[in-house]
Amino acid sequence: MSGWVVLKFGGSSVARPEHWRNIATIITRRRQAGWRVMVVLSALKNVTNMLEGLLHQARAGVHAQALANLHRLHLQFATDLGLDGETILGATWQALNECLDRIAQHKTITPRLHASVLAYGELMSTQLGVAYLHQQGLPVIWQDARHWLVSEPKGDAWHDYLSAECDYRPDPVWRASLPEQAIVITQGFIASHPNGDTVLLGREGSDTTAAYLAAKLGAEALEIWTDVPGIFTTDPREDSTARQLKYLSYAQAVDMTACGARVLHHRALAPAQKNNIPVWIRATSDPDQAGTKLCADVAHHDSAIAVARQDDVLWLQFEPLPQSEMDRVIHVLSSHGFDLLGQFAAIDRVDLVLYWANTDAPEPDVTSLIPISPQKVECGLARVTVIGGQQGDWQSSLGDVLSTRVPVRVQFNEPTKISWLVPVGAGIEAQRALHEQVCQRLPASLVGLAWQGWVNSSQAR
321 and 200 in one domain? Predict the structure, then answer.
């Protein structure tokens, strides 16, 4: 066998028994093509949300029924795969029970406990996945991702435990230690703190796990298998006129994910880009469909190519300040659980766009946290962004079009994208209005499937 390919299967892929036949087929095809295969699995769809709910129910001492429901879900899924769930998951389930009991006893949720509880979704899905694939005759081994991925703490507990980042430098010693013939199955989303605690890579962080491992392995390809056949010009579940993009540069994909496109985790691309690993986004339900390719060497387009949206953002506007002062403000907000989405400087002001990411606490009044009073504070906004080629003529008229459809609070121009802040209730309308304009300008060579056509063909299969 030659080089490595890393295959990541998301929650929607692993949650349906019929998809596991496709997963086994995809793995077999890669091995037949001469690849060594590492598989990264997410928790079953919605299980992370259920575990997050369990945290708060345990703190209130009312988690027994929700825990029983989660148990039944995994046991039924195991049965559907022809597996004995009680035997496979028994020890893991007991450990989860004990963790929740500690929360109920102390009536508090620390970032450390939060990370420990949410990790069980991936631990259980990989245990079931290994058992199923072994049953299909594949030479699989289960490995704990926390042994390979160690976080680099930044100094605040919330980000260190719940939105961690890891070293992903190539590790030839680790690569050489992996069994030659084995298919390695491991968890997305989780890593370890230098002190040995479990940490998380942020919600939807399994993509980042796969990218980290691909970089550490020196893999020749990374495949993200999900429930859509690639990246589309806008969220196809909200706008059925969306079109598949056959290829994108890493930079364009970074812009899309950073601005709210949900098909990839926003930190997943840096490891691939730095190590020049091509990334494919493909649909588990339709493995023969090529999907979208992300790489460095793509044809350049000056046109607008996509629209993304991020809801529930916060806009702060300050008088002009030294960057050192703004850095202080950003550090304080980050340490309390805000993520910075953008900083924009003009002659007469500095704007910050932020998102409250800490699900363990209600969003605080930012003016009580920071040492400098902003001139403007506005919450309940959506950021809608058009991504395109650098300095294309597409940038000139979009703002005028949008302002006729929705109330625009502010516009931010950057070399390869334009963002508007609008009331959150107008976000979808703004996204659709801009998407109409984008679709009129798309290069034919870039465009693949029509979303509605793919849905119709999927239903007919």
Answer: no
- Residue 341: how many CB atoms within 10 A of its CB? 20
Task: Let me know if residue 192 belongs to a domain.
Answer: yes
Answer whether residue 393 shows pLDDT above 80: no
Contact between 320 and 267 under an 8 Å Cβ cutoff? The reply is no
Instruction: Share the mean pLDDT of the chain.
Output: 92
Contact 102, 113 (CB under 8 A): yes
Cα four-point dihedral sign 70, 51, 18, 239: positive
Dist CA 221 CA 286 (whole Å): 19
Among candidates 376, 390, 362, which has minimal Cα distance to 421? 376
Q: Looking at the 3D structure of the chain, how many domains does it have?
A: 2
CA distances from 133 to 7, 17, 26, 28, 145 (A): 14, 12, 12, 10, 19
Closest CA to 370 of 352, 392, 382: 352
CB-based contact 420:404 (threshold 8 Å): no
Rounded Cα distance, 107 and 118, in Å: 17
CA dist list (Å): 324 to 25, 55, 204, 228, 376: 54, 38, 32, 43, 20
| β 247-249/292-295 pair status | parallel
Position 284 in a domain: no
DSSP 3-state assignment of 378?
strand
Nearest one of 339, 374, 31 to 156, comparing CA atoms: 339
Q: What was the pLDDT predicted at 460?
A: 62
For residue 378, the enclosing domain spans 304-442
Dihedral over alpha carbons 280, 286, 290, 296 (to 10 degrees): -10
Per-residue pLDDT reduced to its tens digit, 153-170: 988 888 899 999 999 999
Extract the tokens encoding 232.
């589309």
CA distances from 40 to 125, 133, 220 (A): 10, 13, 16
Q: What is the pTM of this model?
A: 0.92
Residues 366 and 219 in one domain: no
Residue 161 corresponds to which tokens in the numbers above?
């435990």
Task: Give residue for tokens 């490891």.
Answer: 271
- The Cα 36–Cα 181 span in angstroms is 8
State which amino acid sits at residue 275: N
Q: 151 has which bridge partners?
A: 166
Structural tokens at position 410: 């502010």
- Residue 391, pLDDT > 60, answer no
Report the run of H or E that residue 38 belongs to, with start and end.
strand 36-41
